[in-house]
Amino acid sequence: xxxxxxxxxxxxxxxxxxxxxxxxxxxxxxxxxxxxxxxxxxxxxxxxxxxxxxxxxxxxxxxxxxxxxxxxxxxxxxxxxxxxxxxxxxxxxxxxxxxxxxxxxxxxxxxxxxxxxxxxxxxxxxxxxxxxxxxxxxxxxxxxxxxxxxxxxxxxxxxxxxxxxxxxxxxxxxxxxxxxxxxxxxxxxxxxxxxxxxxxxxxxxxxxxxxxxxxxxxxxxxxxxxxxxxxxxxxxxxxxxxxxxxxxxxxxxxxxxxxxxxxxxxxxxxxxxxxxxxxxxxxxxxxxxxxxxxxxxxxxxxxxxxxxxxxxxxxxxxxxxxxxxxxxxxxxxxxxxxxxxxxxxxxxxxxxxxxxxxxxxxxxxxxxxxxxxxxxxxxxxxxxxxxxxxxxxxxxxxxxxxxxxxxxxxxxxxxxxxxxxxxxxxxxxxxxxxxxxxxxxxxxxxxxxxxxxxxx
Length: 456
What we know:
Largest sheet: 8 strands, mixed
Helix content: 40-55%
Shape: globular
Structural class: alpha/beta
């Protein structure tokens, strides 16, 4: 049950300037120790702050594919229903504060810095107390810090409900330190295999841990793979939960990049039809969000308002045109399943591969890079290989080798079909100088760097 009254931070805090807050969000070493990372870290930090997250309802969205879009759609729908709504997603495309929104607006740099200042002080206090008790200090990850910061910012904004995107897995994710009233699991795929496991069943088990007794549960259409479905069904049965299975039917595909898709979906209370200017793969995420939002409010949604909310909902980094002339489109697809969805949407907009712009591709070393290459490379007439600035980036020469091998298997001449750039900025400079359009995909960090360079 939500606490009544205005939330106030229970201790004095020295406010950091924005640049310092960004620096500590990127590297929390100054307040970290040797124990962890652990979910208890975030629980204790929130307890130290007298549970800001208990001043509003939380809705949690887990999954491998579609969780960001589902999170954003859910928040947009609830906002359209008149609720004071917050959104927490990750990672950011360009700036850290993009992870936190209140009523559809990214929080200000001042709000972000304040939240980080409070969370950092809470971490210092928790670790100081552990030290006096002879216990090892917690390792506070950047995601731990930012999750606590978001809860403070949201509580002070006096929101009604926050929609939280799970960062990694579900069982030990920082957002699981809250007590959501409703949860959704979208598609499951091979992702973060070094941490979550190397089979779909293992990964599903980590994500299904967000299902607990008493929670309203929605399962997206990407949870139907047999081994995944068994794991999730077993978890629901153990928790005494009867999940809602989201489904949809596409009524009309987009006829161009940026065109509208229309679809229908049936929930426990109503049938909804909607049209939105989104890629063809987005209705499955919208259907999941509709069921989740309806389950939370406990009544049928306003259909006209729903359509406006979906159509106006921004999905940064998803089929996102960041420059019109020459065209630069980015998509944050980062595993084979999300890449397949992206290519399917591209097929609807431009069926002729030879007429498409070249692909700018980068990848992270802890992803299924071979699977990403297998899906993306055949869908484009030419490929530009690069590496992002992430410390997890796959070196450009390693990625180029994988792309060359794929081009050979396709019987294509690599001299005509492949170019290699040391950096994202070098690739974009070449495109600008040659008035060349490009589509960037393969990792969220690539979408972020491109957007940052072109949008500022």
